[in-house]
Amino acid sequence: MKKLTLIFTALVLIAALAACGGSKNVLLDPTQDPKTSDTAASDTATPDDKPDSELTPAAVEKAIADALGSDSYLCDTDIEESRLQNSYGFDMTKIKAYVAKQNAISAVNLDTVIILKVEDGYADTAVDILNSSYAQTVSYIRQYAFGVGKVLNARIYKEGNYVMYILAG
Fold first, then answer.
1. Could you give the CA distance from residue 53 to residue 32 in angstroms, rounded to a whole number?
2. Exposure pattern of 50-77 as b/e (b: 16+ CB <10 Å)?
3. I want to staple 112 with a disulfide (CB 3.0 to 4.6 A). Which of 62, 76, 98, 102 is the partner?
4. Given strand 40-44, what is the order of strands in its sheet?
5. For the segment 120-153, what is each residue's pLDDT rounded down to a tens digit?
């Protein structure tokens, strides 16, 4: 039930982020190479009454945390900007705002939530970076089989200049 709530919340957030009606749900098939995978699926969403300027990565992350509840939302540690730049490979000059959290014991609890508001033209690059990171996570859980279900249910969403990576719940 909590997973359905998370999915519903994410879909509502995507609809809220829609500035001009189009929505992309970008999912990586863990069996495909992220560099050759064309996994974007196009959905239609209706714009919310909230202007784009009212939506922030922090508000989106809070909605996800609230939807999962304190017992299921395990992202309790901020991911530092230097890690986003050096480990993930993001160009931080193209990210307007972000919230990036993971579990304090990330080697055991792989829960990670990254919400990015990016400059025009950088969203697809951010999705590619997150898909690459996700592929590494899938490889990791195949070596150390724990949290497999959670990892395989992770999602990457792109809507306009917002990109969300949700591995939580």
1. 36
2. eeeeebbbeebbebbbebbeeeebbbee
3. 102
4. 40-44, 22-26, 155-159, 162-167, 112-118, 95-102, 77-78
5. 999 999 999 999 999 999 999 988 888 899 999 9
